[in-house]
Each structure stands twice: as C-alpha cells, then as structure tokens.
Amino acid sequence: MNYKSYSDLSCDIRKHLPNIQDKGFDLVVGLPRSGLTPANMIALYMNVACTDFDSFINDRKLKKGKTRKSKTDIEYPHDAKNILLVDDSIRSGSSLQSDLLLIPDSLRSKVTTCAIYSSSPKRDDVDMFLEVVPMPRVFEWNLFHHVITTEACFDIDGVLCVDPTKEQNDDGEKYIDFILNAEPLFIPTNKVYALVTSRLEKYRKETEIWLNKHNIEYEHLIMLDLPNKEERQKLGVHGSHKAKYYKSTNARLFIESEYKQSVEILNITNKPVFCVDENLMLTPGKSYFIKNKVKSTFLKKLVKLIPTPVKKKIKSILNKK
C-alpha cells in the first residue's frame, strides 16, 4: 500500500520546482478538491496568481493578498498567457479529460496540465506529472474517505475518537462517560469493514451508542472479551488481539493509532498497517523499530556509564533548582 502525506506532497513539489519555474506560468489553477492544495503550494512557491477551476472557467476576478505582491499582474484568469492546471493525482485520466472539455477553445492552447502523482510512469493524457505512485495507493487527504476503508479494519480510540486521559480510563463511571461523549477525530465516509478495538466487551452498548451518534457505519465490531482493565493490562494483548482478527480476514489495511501496536500488527499479519500517531504507512518487507523502547534502553545504558560521583553531583545540582 503506497502512501503520500501532506509533508511528502510539499517535498515532492519542491523537488520538481525548478522544472515548473522554467516554464514561466503566470497562473495556477487547482482542480477541485484535491488539486487545490498542490495548486496553492506551487503558486505560493512561484509567487504567481492562483484560482480554482470554476473561477477560471467563469473568469472571476482574481483575489490578491495584502502582504505580498504577486509577480504576475493580471486581474482576470482569462488574461493569463501561460496557465498550469493542477490535480493531485491521475490514474485513468477520465476526470481530467472531462474537465478539459469545459475550457473554451480560445484558452486551451494556453493550458498545461499537471498531476503531482501518476499511477503509471508512461502516459499521454497529461502534459506533465511529478512522481510515480503505483496502485494501490492512498493519500493523507483522502485516506478516511477512500474506498479502501470498506476493506479495512479500524482501531477506535486515537482514530475515530480521541484517547481517554488517565483519569477517564478508570474502568468505571468516568470511562463510561468518556465512551458516550468522546470527541470525534477521523470519521470515515464509507462503511468500514471492521472496528477492532481493545475496549472490553462489557462496553459494547456504550460504544455502539457513540458510533450511531456519529453516523459511523461498520460491518463488524470486534472487542476484547476480558473481565476488566487490570486483566487486559496484565495480559498485554492489545496488538495481538487486533492482529489475530486482521489476519483471519481478507481486509487489506489496518488503521491503528499507536506506533508500537502498529509494528506488532504488521509483524504478526504481514499486511499493511497505517499508524495515525506517526502518520506512517507500515508495509510488509520493511523493518520498523519500537522507538520509545529503543530510546529508553539506550538512555539506561548511557546512564550506567556515568561514574557514581558524577551522578550524585548532577542530582544535587538539579535538586537545588
């Protein structure tokens, strides 16, 4: 599963910026909706005018900021001499061709089409593309609304809603209140294949109430059948519980909040996992480290190398502050 984040988008545009600059565009037009962000990035880097596709077609007056003067001095889109039409990605090319039919013949020769990401390295349905990202692929800006969610498993806490605080996670009345009133985070548009959570089975009713309240559709709700929080912590089966279900299905992606559990799920299933906390797609065949554990172990070893008198001196200095 290939993935590009907003950070990747910015870096990829910057990498190819010299080639774009050389073409002397005086207007950048973004195709709705996913093309608007890269269009604005390119226009800001180049300091030229930018507009959306509908405003371009209807020749609406360009809006200008007050803090910085644009290099191009045009008032209306149709005054532009060299136009860059931008979308975030291209696969079949049918959507772009439909948009091109709406452009007046008098302007078509001024337009250069550009997709930031192409599914194929060779194509003749777009004038230029910056990077090849083969299928299957998802982007940060469409992940939770992509059709892939119909074939995905979702964690709940840290994905669909915020995580409970330590105080809220009391396995009692405060936790029930949290479940019923948790603030939503990433709400998927499509019906999700399965919600796989480490929440205890005894909280199914409250969880279903919250999901219904936020119009989250799903085929399966898989919870942890243990008596209490203490038993769950003792067994430490958060990641393995999720991995066991994911591995038993034809689901193509697991969306997990915590990095450590993401790595565990990947290692057990050998299937892609998206980690929300790290904004990272973990894929089979690559090695991932448990960062916090590695860092903690390294620091402990480092501290052991410090002579005891020096440790005491440092401790006394810190205590005085």
UniProtKB/TrEMBL annotation:
<keyword id="KW-0808">Transferase</keyword>
<dbReference type="InterPro" id="IPR023214">
    <property type="entry name" value="HAD_sf"/>
</dbReference>
<dbReference type="InterPro" id="IPR029057">
    <property type="entry name" value="PRTase-like"/>
</dbReference>
<dbReference type="GO" id="GO:0016757">
    <property type="term" value="F:glycosyltransferase activity"/>
</dbReference>
<dbReference type="Pfam" id="PF00156">
    <property type="entry name" value="Pribosyltran"/>
</dbReference>
<keyword id="KW-0328">Glycosyltransferase</keyword>
<protein>
    <submittedName>
        <fullName>Phosphoribosyltransferase</fullName>
    </submittedName>
</protein>
<feature type="domain" description="Phosphoribosyltransferase">
    <location>
        <begin position="23"/>
        <end position="128"/>
    </location>
</feature>
<dbReference type="InterPro" id="IPR000836">
    <property type="entry name" value="PRTase_dom"/>
</dbReference>
